[in-house]
């Protein structure tokens, strides 16, 4: 029976390598990782598309083109070569990673699938290895991948071997000869490859675990210099790190960020005092902004977010939030606007703007580096894994991060982030709770940067509006229309005088021409005095003609000014309609949020009713339906109908036919009437809902508007209480409303508001919820609704046991009766 055994054709091995190693850059990266895993302090790569390797005596002398990968790692013994290179898919590293062991140098191996050797066949036909452990004899082996297509059994493929006396203490030299695709390393393809290398091997020195030297066709490629020079030109720079508990995010922005599409406004209102007045304006709105003394950067910020308290939507695994482990990152933002063509740094480093743009865009993208090596496809060749394109507006806003305008990375570590595993084909991460939470954190960081960018954009627009208004004296739309009407009346008053002036000027020009012609035609008989007067009249004639030309131009302006009433008649009603629409926006948007909540409840009620109907139908079919069952079903239907009525009663005041009604009511009565709705909703979530009346009072307001305000505040509490309950099973969530004339206080026993956003909490699109679970509009809409009634809302300065603000205070004094 022993003659029966499995074997494999060598061709399968070759096919396996072709399928698992997608391109030359991936193949080269696998070999560089081998050097890293060998505790090398450097790896040197030399590529020659057409030459012959002559530094060492090869078994295969005849070849064209070669790649040499050399390192000073711990090298390999003959036994290691037999296993690591000649037994396909054998991997000692796999066992090390499973046992969480490290190399003698403390590195967690990057390779674990035994595929590094297969990547060599992607690059060349011939593979020769020279290797020796410290102070030991060296081993030289060689084989030809072409033999894998000719032999019938894997064991019959020829492998040549010999020992040698090494010249260096330890290390490995891999020589790949007879390149498969030599055109990859030449001409335009070579330039493309250089860009790919910078994408695959981190160009950030601080993020590279060891030195990488690259020489292609005799030219040394400096991975550091070009990147450092490019980073100096960035208009914004963001740094972040997650230590496993807290995300620390900082950023700084150059004044030139605000040039945008209007250089004139930038010069007149910002550049003139180096942004000092603008920063004072910003500081009033965003307390955490810092004025930077750095000569290159204008302003900066630092914000912190706690993993367990501030970030929603994280997955729970084995009773706790799946923590992907610590990571760091940087993002640099660039602009390619034409004003840069005069920048001295651009001229000195790149020569011209187009060269800078081409180089920067070839590096563009936010990469994911594991121990200094890129994880494909993240940020490579235009991959937009952080969905930066979604942040771009149709209006062409230049403030959010855009894929073609950023260069950066997120750095993870094989040991620290051992739950973030590469897919077998090296194209992405294996999907699991840890990787999904890693992406949630990455999106959160991106969104926070964009919130900062959008915040300073809005502040800049407000700043321009404020200071333009101050200089022009127009503060409202009605003032603008008033000035237009005054201009129209003033035009009517001077139009006759203007026409008279045009006529008089024409007559003066005609008379002057006659006098000049008369003098010129009678020069022989004219006296010296007449000649002198003729010369002076000719000068006056020139001035008069210039005045006439200006008057003709002014005539067009006056004709247009005379039609301002027509413009006002068209614009005024349209702007009035627009203002009404804007006033309705907050109410409609808030109604939409309420409707979402109510429709979810309707769906739950419908599902439960359907389930009951199915249960009793099954009983009826089996003739097991009793009279008692019928009574139970009828009672359940009655309860369900009453529940639907509660939902509709809650929604009804906010509907259009009721939105304009203002009624008077006591707050305690209003909240007690709404209590059924909230209790029904919160009981299912095990949330206790408490209303305390300290000092009751009455108000006159649209009931639906107040419903919307309270609802949005409670929706916010509900979300964060549910998030805390996910990780604290014994947590008893509570929501409180306290009535104390003329205030209403709404708060809960959750973690409280993240300090990083407490000053912007009422700004639009400010939220720490993930996309799809929050838009950052709820509190903004509440503020708009309250403002429309002359009231206010604020986040109270009092803090909870987590040292966070947590209580919203509504001042209703303007509607108190």
TrEMBL record:
<dbReference type="InterPro" id="IPR003594">
    <property type="entry name" value="HATPase_dom"/>
</dbReference>
<keyword id="KW-0902">Two-component regulatory system</keyword>
<dbReference type="InterPro" id="IPR005467">
    <property type="entry name" value="His_kinase_dom"/>
</dbReference>
<keyword id="KW-0808">Transferase</keyword>
<keyword id="KW-0597">Phosphoprotein</keyword>
<dbReference type="InterPro" id="IPR004358">
    <property type="entry name" value="Sig_transdc_His_kin-like_C"/>
</dbReference>
<keyword id="KW-0547">Nucleotide-binding</keyword>
<dbReference type="Pfam" id="PF02518">
    <property type="entry name" value="HATPase_c"/>
</dbReference>
<dbReference type="GO" id="GO:0005524">
    <property type="term" value="F:ATP binding"/>
</dbReference>
<protein>
    <recommendedName>
        <fullName>histidine kinase</fullName>
        <ecNumber>2.7.13.3</ecNumber>
    </recommendedName>
</protein>
<dbReference type="GO" id="GO:0000160">
    <property type="term" value="P:phosphorelay signal transduction system"/>
</dbReference>
<feature type="domain" description="Histidine kinase">
    <location>
        <begin position="597"/>
        <end position="814"/>
    </location>
</feature>
<keyword id="KW-0067">ATP-binding</keyword>
<dbReference type="InterPro" id="IPR036890">
    <property type="entry name" value="HATPase_C_sf"/>
</dbReference>
<keyword id="KW-0418">Kinase</keyword>
<dbReference type="GO" id="GO:0004673">
    <property type="term" value="F:protein histidine kinase activity"/>
</dbReference>
<dbReference type="Pfam" id="PF13589">
    <property type="entry name" value="HATPase_c_3"/>
</dbReference>
């Amino acid at each position: 029976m022993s003659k029966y055994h499995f074997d494999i054709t060598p061709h399968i091995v070759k096919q396996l390598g072709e399928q698992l190693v997608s391109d030359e850059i991936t193949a080269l990266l696998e070999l560089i990782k081998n050097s890293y895993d060998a505790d090398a302090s450097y790896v040197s790569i030399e590529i020659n598309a057409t030459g012959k390797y002559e530094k060492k005596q090869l078994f295969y002398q005849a070849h064209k083109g070669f790649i040499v990968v050399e390192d000073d790692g711990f090298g390999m013994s003959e036994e290691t070569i037999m296993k690591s290179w000649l037994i396909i898919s054998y991997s000692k590293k796999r066992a090390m990673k499973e046992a969480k062991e490290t190399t003698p140098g403390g590195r967690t191996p990057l390779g674990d699938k035994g595929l590094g050797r297969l990547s060599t066949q992607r690059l060349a036909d011939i593979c020769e290895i020279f290797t020796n452990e410290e102070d030991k004899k060296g081993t030289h082996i060689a084989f030809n991948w072409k033999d894998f297509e000719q032999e019938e059994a894997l064991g019959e493929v020829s492998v040549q071997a010999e020992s040698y006396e090494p010249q260096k203490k330890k290390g490995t030299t891999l020589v790949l000869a007879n390149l498969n695709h030599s055109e990859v390393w030449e001409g335009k393809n070579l330039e493309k490859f250089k860009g790919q290398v910078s994408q695959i091997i981190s160009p950030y020195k601080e993020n590279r675990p060891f030195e990488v030297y690259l020489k292609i066709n005799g030219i040394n490629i400096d991975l550091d210099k070009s990147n450092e020079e490019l980073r100096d030109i960035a208009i914004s720079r963001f740094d972040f790190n997650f230590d496993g508990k807290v995300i620390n995010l900082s950023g700084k922005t150059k004044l030139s960020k605000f040039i945008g599409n209007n250089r004139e406004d930038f010069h007149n209102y910002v550049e003139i005092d180096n942004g000092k007045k603008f920063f004072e304006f910003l500081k009033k709105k965003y307390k955490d902004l810092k004025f930077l003394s750095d000569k290159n950067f204008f302003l900066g910020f630092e914000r912190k977010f706690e993993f367990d308290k501030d970030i929603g939507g994280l997955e729970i695994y084995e009773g706790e939030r799946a923590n992907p482990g610590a990571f760091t990152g940087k993002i640099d933002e660039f602009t390619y606007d034409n004003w840069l063509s005069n920048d001295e740094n651009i001229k000195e480093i790149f020569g011209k703007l187009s060269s800078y743009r081409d180089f920067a865009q070839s590096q563009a993208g936010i990469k994911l580096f594991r121990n200094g090596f890129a994880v494909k496809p993240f940020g490579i060749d235009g991959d937009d894994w952080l969905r930066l394109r979604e942040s771009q507006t149709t209006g062409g806003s230049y403030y959010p991060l855009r894929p073609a305008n950023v260069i950066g990375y997120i750095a993870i570590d094989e040991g620290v982030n051992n739950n973030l595993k590469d897919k077998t084909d090296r194209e992405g991460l294996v999907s699991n709770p840890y990787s999904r939470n890693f992406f949630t954190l990455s999106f959160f960081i991106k969104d926070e940067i964009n919130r900062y960018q959008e915040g300073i954009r809005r502040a800049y627009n407000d700043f321009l509006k404020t200071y333009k208004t101050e200089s022009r004296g127009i503060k409202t739309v009605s003032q603008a229309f008033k000035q237009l009407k005054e201009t129209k009346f003033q035009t009517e008053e001077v139009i006759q005088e203007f026409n008279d002036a045009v006529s008089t000027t024409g007559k003066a020009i005609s008379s002057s021409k006659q006098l000049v012609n008369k003098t010129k035609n009678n020069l022989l008989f004219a006296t010296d005095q007449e000649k002198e007067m003729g010369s002076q009249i000719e000068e006056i004639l020139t001035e008069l003609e210039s005045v006439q030309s200006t008057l003709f131009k002014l005539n067009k302006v006056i004709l247009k000014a005379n039609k301002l009433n027509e413009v006002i008649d068209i614009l005024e009603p349209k702007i009035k309609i627009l203002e009404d629409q804007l006033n309705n926006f907050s109410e409609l948007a808030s109604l939409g949020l309420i409707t979402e909540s109510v429709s979810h409840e309707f769906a739950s009620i419908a599902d439960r009713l359907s389930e009951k109907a199915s249960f009793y139908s099954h009983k009826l079919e089996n003739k097991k339906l009793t009279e008692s069952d019928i009574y139970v079903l009828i009672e359940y239907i009655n309860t369900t109908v009453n529940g639907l009525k509660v939902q509709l009663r809650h929604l009804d005041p906010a509907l259009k036919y009721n939105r304009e009604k203002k009624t008077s009511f006591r707050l305690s009565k209003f909240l007690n009437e709404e209590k059924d709705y909230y209790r029904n909703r919160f009981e299912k979530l095990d949330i206790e809902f408490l209303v305390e009346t300290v000092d009751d009072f009455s108000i006159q307001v649209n009931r639906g508007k107040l419903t919307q305000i309270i609802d949005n505040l409670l929706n916010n509490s509900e979300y964060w209480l549910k998030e805390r309950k996910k990780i604290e099973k014994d947590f008893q969530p509570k929501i409180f409303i306290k009535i104390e004339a003329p205030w209403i206080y709404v708060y809960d026993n959750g973690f409280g508001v993240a300090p990083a956003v407490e000053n912007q909490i009422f700004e639009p699109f400010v939220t720490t919820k993930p996309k799809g679970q929050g838009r950052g509009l709820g509190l903004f809409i509440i503020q708009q609704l309250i403002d429309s009634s002359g009231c206010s809302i604020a986040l109270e300065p009092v803090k909870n046991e987590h040292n966070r603000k947590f209580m919203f205070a509504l001042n209703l004094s303007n509607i108190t009766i």
